[in-house]
Design goal:
- With 252 residues, this protein is mainly β.
- It has two helices and 19 strands.
- The strands form five sheets. It has a four-stranded antiparallel β-sheet, with no helix packed on it. A four-stranded antiparallel β-sheet has the order 5-6-7-8.
């Protein structure tokens, strides 16, 4: 089950983190919603959903009330269908990725598309000549135009410590004070340092970590620390490097 902010439960006119979490989940081909401590409010068939990872919420029509993005369908809070990419009706405008630009859900002959406000094809049906970037609408909302990607590379082990390259491989500026740490073979943190400068997309900084490295040590940008600062990073395979080894550091 997923906890989602769907309703204005504190009556401030906004749906945000101050409000109570409703429950949203996928099971046996259906998407279901329930209020905490109550029975299921509704379930709807959603053949394009494969798991909970295909679900998210967005206020796509700008009325202050979030809709539910489920596979290739968008449901209103009462369970009715706002839009279905597999069975589209009329052209609909919505801000799917929350970048401030209205995106387009439209049909042209045998081709159905979700197109971003800057012209990117988010999703396209099999009848289109150009493929889309994502398989479903939840993927669009989880991969906005502003992509966070902190990358770790260039690990070098020296007698007095470890030097590692912290790079901004995403599309948004990263602030200073982001952590880099060394873990031992058991996963215990040995030492942690913070980056000293902000990084624009494409920029990098060499970070010095004062510690004695041994076999089994791992250098890591902790993902949870980024989330605590409000940065949701989805590409995390480049956040860890062994201090020694083919993919890790070198001893000069």
């Amino acid at each position: 089950m997923l906890g989602m902010h769907l309703r204005d439960t504190d009556h401030d006119g906004l749906v945000r983190s101050n409000d109570s979490l409703d429950l949203l989940w996928y099971y046996a081909g259906k998407v279901c919603v329930a209020k905490p401590g109550s029975d299921t409010s509704w379930c709807r068939s959603a053949p394009s959903v494969g798991s909970n990872s295909d679900l998210t919420v967005r206020d796509v029509d700008g009325d202050g009330v979030p809709e539910i993005l489920a596979g290739r369908e968008i449901f209103r809070q009462n369970g009715s269908v706002f839009y279905d990419l597999d069975h589209p009706g009329v052209t609909t405008l919505a801000d799917l990725d929350e970048d401030g630009f209205l995106d387009t859900l439209r049909i042209q002959g045998a081709c159905t598309q979700a197109i971003s406000g800057v012209g990117t094809i988010f999703w396209a049906s099999t009848g289109c000549t150009t493929a889309g970037t994502y398989q479903n609408l939840a993927g669009i909302s989880r991969h906005p135009m502003g992509c966070v990607d902190a990358s770790l590379s260039g690990v070098t082990v020296l007698a007095q410590g470890i030097q590692a390259r912290f790079a901004n491989a995403g599309t948004v500026e990263l602030p200073s004070g982001l952590p880099v740490r060394v873990l031992d073979a058991q996963g215990n943190e040995k030492v942690r340092v913070l980056t000293s400068s902000s990084l624009l997309p494409g920029q990098w900084v060499d970070v010095w970590i004062p510690t004695t490295a041994v076999a089994g040590d791992v250098v890591e940008i902790p993902t949870q620390s980024l989330r605590d600062l409000g940065y949701l990073e989805l590409q995390t395979t480049n956040n860890r490097r062994p201090a020694f080894g083919a993919a890790g550091g070198t001893q000069p």
